Structures are given as C-alpha cells and as structure tokens.
Amino acid sequence: MKTKSLLLVAAGIAIGATGALESKKAYSAELFFPHTVYRTGAYAPSGIPSANGFRDYYALLNKRDGGIEGHKVVSEECEFKYNTKIGVECYEKLKGKHGGAMLVNPYSTGLTYQLIPKAPVNKIPILSMGYGRTAAADGRVFPWVFNFPATYWSQASAVINYIGAQEGGLGNLKGKHIAHVYHNSAYGKEANPTLDALSAKLGFKLTKLAVDHPGQEQKATWLQIRRKKPDWVFMSGWGVMNQVAIKEAASIGFPMTKFIGNWWSASDADVIPAGDNAIGYKGTNMHPAGTKPKVIQDIIKHIYGGDMAKAKANNVGEVLYNRAVLGAFYATEVVRDAVKLAGGKRPSGDQVREAFENLNMSEARLVKSGMKGYAPSFKVSCRNHEGNAPGVLIQQWSGSKWTTDGKFYPAMNDVVRPMVEKAAAAYAKENKIKPRDC
Amino acid sequence: MEVLNTFFVAPFLDMGSDLIFLTEVIIGGMMAGIMYSLVALGFVLIYKASGVFNYAQGAMVLFAALTLVGLMERHVPLVLAIILTMGVMIGLAFLIERYMLRKLVNQAQIILFMAAIGLNFVFEGAGQIAWGSNVKKLDVGIPDKSFEFGGILLNSFDLFAACTAAILVAILALFFQKTPTGRALRAVADDHQAALAVGIPLNTIWVIVWSVAGFVALVAGIMWGGKAGVQFSLVLIALKALPVLILGGFESVPGAIIGGLLIGIFEKISEVYWGPAFGGAIEGWFAYMAALIFLMFRPQGLFGEKIIERV
User: Fold this and answer.
1) Is residue A134 in some structural domain?
2) Residues A39, A72: one domain?
C-alpha cells in the first residue's frame, strides 16, 4: 500500500513537472501573417512554390525557434487565383483574424496597387518585396508600403549595368540595341520608364514589345525580334509567357546567353518546359537558388524530417520557393523588431511600421540569423523604403540548375531615385497626400 | 496627315520593303492559326451534333493533356497513356450524356450553354485536384527544330501540327460524310426529334460526339502542351478559338481550319505592322474585331449554314 502510494505521488510529481514545462513552452501571443496565394489558375506554376516557401518558413520558426520572441507565428492562406478582385476580398477576410494582421505580403503587383490606399486606414503595412508600385520607395508619400531590397526600376537599371559590363563598359552601350519583351500589364510595363531614361542617357536603341495575357502565342513578337536583331533581350514576363518566350527565342535562334529575364521570369517552371533549349538563359535574382543555403537545409531537416524527395515535391530549393523564404524572413525579422519595440508584447500596426522604417539588415544581423550569403543586406529609412543598396545577382540555367557567380550588379540610383521621387510627388498631388518631412 | 501615314501608308510600305519577312509573318500566322483550329474543331463537333456551344472545350483540352502527362509521369508508356487517356475521355462523355445532356433534352440553348459553363469549372477543378497545378513538360517525341527554307524560318513542330490538323480534318470529314454514324450525327444536328422518329439513338450519338470531341481535345492538348508545357493556361486557348468559329462558322469542320488560318494570318500581320502604332499587344483584340466586322457581312460565318426561319 505504501509502495503504491509512493508510486502515485511520484507519478503526480512527474505529471505536474511536465505540465509546468509545457506551460513554460506555451506561446505568449499569436503573430498573424495572412497570405494571399494562387495555388490554382493560370499562374499556379509560380504561385505554388511561392506559397510553399512562406508556409514552410513560418512553420520553421515555430519548430526551430519557438516562434518569434516567444510568440507563435500563425499564418492563413486565401486562394485568389492571381485575380486582383478576389485578392482584395481575401485581404478583407483575413485582415482582422487572430488579433489582426502584422503585415501583408500580397505577392501580386495588381493587388498591391489596390491595397496601398487601405494600408494607412487599417494600419497594416505592406511588404511588396521586389514588386508592386515602384514609386512607393519614397517613404515620405507611402509611409505604409515597403519594397526592398530593390524595385522594378532599380532592377532594370542593374540589368543595364550588367549588360554594360558584358559589353566592356557602359560607354560601349552607345549604338547597341536592347529589346524589352514585357507582359502587357501594370507589372510588365513597370520597367519601361527606366529603360527609356537609360536609353536616352547611354545612347542604346530600345525596342519595347508587349505580349498580351497570358502569352501563349508570341510568334509575332519573336518574328519582330528576328527582324530587328537586338543585341540583348530583357524580359518582364509572368507565368506561361516566360515558357513560351524561351521556346520562341530558341526557335528563332536568339542566343540564350543574351536573353535575360527579370526575377519573375527566371524560375524553374519557366525553363523546364523548354528542355535543353533553355540552357544558357539568364535571369536576375536577389538570393541563391538550390538547397545548399543553411535556411533551406534547416527547412529540410525540421519540416521534412530530412526527406529530400518530399522536400523536392514541395518545390524546396526552387527559385520562387527560395524567394518566398526570403520574403518570409524579412517579414518576420521586421515583426521581431516590432515585438522588441512593444516591450516583448504583441506589436500594434504603428509599431510594425516603425520597425520597417528602422530596419537595418546588416551583415552582422544576417550572420546571426544564419542568412549570410542568402539575403541581401540593406538599411531602410523614413525617406527610402527600397533600402540603400538595390541591385541584382545574375543567375544562369545550366540545364539542370541555376548557377550564379555571386557578383552583385548595383542599380543606378542616380538615374532611378529622381524618377521615383518625381512619380511619388505626382501620386501625392493626385491623391492630395501631404508628404512627410524626412 | 501623320495619322494617315501611320495607319494607311507606312505599314504597307513596310510590307513591300521586305517580302521575305512578310512571307515569314504569313507562314507564322498560318502555323499559329492551325493551332487555334485544333481547339475550334472540338467546338464545331459538339455544336454540330447537339447545338451546345461547349464552353468547356478549353478545359477538356487541359484535362486530356493533364491526364496524359500524369500517366506518363507514372512511367506509363506513351501509346498506352494515350489509349488510357482516350478511355478517360470516353468515360467522361458517358457521364456528360447521362448526367447532363439527358436531363436537358429540349431545353433552351441558353440552358445548355450554362450547363457547359458549369462543366468547364468541373473539368478545371477535377484536373487540378487529380494531377496538380504545376507546369508539366510534355514530350511525345515531336521534333522541335527550326530551319531556313529559301530564307524563310520554319519550325518542324509547327509543320507537324499543321500535318496533324490536316489529317484530323480529313478523318473527320470522312467520318461525317461517309459513315452511317456520321450521317446520324448530321441528322441529329439538323433536327433531333426527326432523328429520333427515324430510330437514331440520340443518347448514343451524343456519347460518340463528345468522345470524338475528347479525342480532338487530346490532340490539341498534346500540341499546345508540347509547345509551352501542360498547365492551367491551356484553358484560355478556348478564347483564341472563338474568332476562328465566328469567321469559319460554328458548324463547319473545313470552316474551323480556314477560319484558323485566316485569323492566324490576320493576327500576326496586324501585330507586326500595325502593333507599333497602338503600343503593341493588339493581336488578341484585333482578331475579335476582324471577326465582328466579318459578322456584319456574313453572320453565319464563311462556311456556316444560312438559317432561314419562318415568322
């Protein structure tokens, strides 16, 4: 009897201790990251790896780190098929869930345009990482929108910088011919003003060729390329347009090494349908592809239990997957700063915005986060929401993987920034916004 | 004056200045047009036999291509995969007849059209649920090499598609004109009540025609999927077939081919020579505009039957 009682007491102590440990592990609050995704529809091949990247990184933070500063990361997807109207409905549906969204990452330029006026009203900052409205880089007019580490305009100027380097210097671009093949949408047209300005400044001939949505048939476009014989082609495509363009370029014999896609036109799904024809195709990027980076290895270990086949089936290591991981990293680091600003509590929208504006993604911080060599470093300010070091990496398709020399090609800030400020001033005037003084 | 030059003089001078390029544009347009015709054929078949404007034809193309590539990914040999996919399409034709058409006999055309819209969503959803939404490479061994002939750029894949379309039209024409089933199909299309009265089994005919449309969808899916991978955007090629149908006529197999060729040529010429004046990307709406202008003069299309109804 005595032994039985002792055993019961011991069991009780053990259960109690376990419970105490569990309660210590319990999260203080929930930090909600809504996510508008497109796992179905015409743009699903791009939407699926992106959605998986966000999902896995949020799960990694909970599993590996116990959330953010003791708070649980909660995410919820809403399918919008890359349809802006449905995307706005998703935003309205999700914005107040789990105590309210920390920020939104629309993953669509069209949707970003629609959400910009809503951000200050709902006090939910927008992170449009490398997409969206370029003029939003001027934080005086767009205090709630952040588009680091580089805008479309900066990206286009960095591509010209790269082409200049290949031609032996920017001075050698005079008399050269560059074609811009673009998706006939707000997104596709974004790079045109920069290219026009650079064409005037550097003396290269610019031909702009629009491709209608969705871009399954591009014979006319590529026959014009064949006739005009540009030295380089830069593409701002999306979805099936990219795959068809690469095939058509190969079909007319345009050299792949002189064909550069922007960072939404150079993913695994874009090159695989073209097979060997895509070998040599180039694209811009802001992070490495593949499964070698530490954060990707962590995902494979913690989320997929080391099962590489399962990880690959979920697009781990693909360009757009890795980009989404980068986006989730930046988003959660901003919220980490915001939690600290709130004294360890759940931050308000204003505090998240303040954290955005003071974000210092220094090399030291990247080392500490295990993201050195994966995420670009930069510093955001009240005035400059794009960050102070925009530029691109150039990656190239080998037939089985993307490779990069790791060389960073900076944007031409002297050309782009005045254009950004001019466009932002025009937006402010049109929408009767008084720019902040900073 | 400058406007007149931009729209009415410069494009023609440009055409005349480089006749080889003009020929290339025309051939490119014909090759693109043939691909539209492959999709348009499916519409024509079903419209001929059941009077239904099959809004789901694009989704059928996607579903057939997804099924084929899904089977091939599971290491099913190509020929067997094609046979199995055809089996799936025939099975679906049975289901469509049993659960959709049979219930809607004698309903107004708009009801049948609405049902086809519903069917489109079923195909879209079922295809993606069963086989996923990722882009899939489809390689059935069609050669895809470009070469020059007399200075004109040609592509072996495009030529193969053109030959396939020609063979398909010949087979369909023989089927409709020379076989008892084909004649029965035409009888049903003319007047299904009269056809029933003379003993033609309406339900069987519908299954046959939807199966044939499924076969055409599979061929179109192989061609379009081979070009740009099998993915959801295959559904949208139906939009390319509409001006072809308006031009060629909804009931004519040869009309689908001729309409496709004309629309293809018109699209490419307008894009290349008039596109710059409009800022580019005009081929899509230009095709519709051309078809609408054509409608004003010949509402039944090039080869469509002129409908005269008594008041």
Assistant:
1) yes
2) yes
Q: A214 to chain B: which residues are within 8 Å by CB?
A: 233, 236
Distance CA A160, CA A198 (A): 8
Query: Residue A256 belongs to a domain with what CATH number?
Result: 3.40.50.2300
Structure tokens at A380: 């955001």
B309 pLDDT band, cuts 50/70/90, is: low
Q: Characterize A322-333 residue by residue with b for buried, 16 or more Cβ atoms within 10 angstroms of its Cβ, and e for exposed.
A: bbbbbbbbbbbb
ipTM of this predicted complex?
A: 0.89
Residues of A in contact with B65 (CB under 8 A): none
How confident is the model over A63-80, as pLDDT tens digits?
Answer: 999 999 999 999 999 999
pLDDT at A24 over 60: no
Residues A133 and A207 in one domain: no
pLDDT at res. B311? 61
pLDDT digits (tens, 9 = 90+) for B242-285: 999 999 988 888 889 999 999 999 999 999 999 988 888 898 88
Task: Work out the burial of residue A86: count CB atoms within 10 Å of its CB; fewer than 13 is exposed, 13-18 middle, 19 or more buried.
Answer: middle
> How confident is the model over B283-300, as pLDDT tens digits?
888 888 988 888 888 888
Q: Which residues of B touch A250 (CB under 8 A)?
A: 146
DSSP H or E stretch at residue B84: helix B78-96
The answer to whether the CB atoms of A220 and B137 lie below 8 A apart is: no
**A173 and A262, same domain (yes or no):** yes
User: How remote is the C-alpha of A214 from its chain's centroid?
Assistant: 21
B121 at A interface, C-beta within 8 A: no
Structure tokens at B182: 């084909």
Backbone conformation region of residue A30, classed left if phi is above 0, alpha if psi is from -120 to 50, else beta: beta
Decide: A116 and A91 in contact? Cβ < 8 Å: no
Nearest Cα to Cα of residue A147 among A289, A31, A286, A296: A286
pLDDT band at A15 (very low <50, low <70, confident <90, very high): very low
Whether the CA torsion B240, B242, B247, B253 is positive or negative: it is positive
Q: How far apart are CA B188 and CA B47, in angstroms?
A: 11
DSSP string, A261-319: E-TTS-SHHHHGGGGGGGTT-EEEESS--SS-SHHHHHHHHHTSTT-HHHHHHTTTTSH
Residue A420 near residue A151 (C-beta atoms within 8 A)? yes
Residue A253, CA distances (Å) to A350, A355, B145, B151, B154 in order:
54, 50, 10, 14, 11
pLDDT digits (tens, 9 = 90+) for A235-257: 999 988 999 999 999 999 999 99
Instruction: Give the angle subtended at the CA of A29 by the CAs of A28 and A34, to the nearest 5°.
Output: 150
Residue A225 sits in which domain range? Answer: 153-285
A385 neighbors A149 (Cβ within 8 angstroms): no
Distance from CA of A403 to the nearest CA of B (A): 22
Asked whether the beta carbons of residue B236 and residue A212 sit closer than 8 angstroms, the reply is no
CATH number 2.60.120 is the correct assignment for the domain at B2-297:
no
Q: Are the C-beta atoms of B28 and B193 separated by less than 8 Å?
A: no
Question: Which chain A residues are closer than 8 Å to B153 by Cβ?
Answer: 223, 226, 251-252
Chain A (279-338) residues lying within 8 Å, Cβ to Cβ, of chain B:
none
Distance CA A121, CA A423 (A): 22
Beta bridge partners of B153: B148
Domain chopping of chain B, boundaries:
2-297
| B137, B240, B280 ranked by CB distance to A273: nearest | B137
Rounded Cα gap, residues A353 and A146, in angstroms: 9
Would you say B92 and B84 are in contact if contact means Cβ atoms under 8 Å apart? no
pLDDT confidence band for A266 (50 / 70 / 90): very high
Helix axes B10-17, B19-50, angle to 10 degrees: 110
Greater confidence (B172 vs A266) lies with: A266
Alpha helices per DSSP H over A137-212 = 152-166, 186-189, 192-202
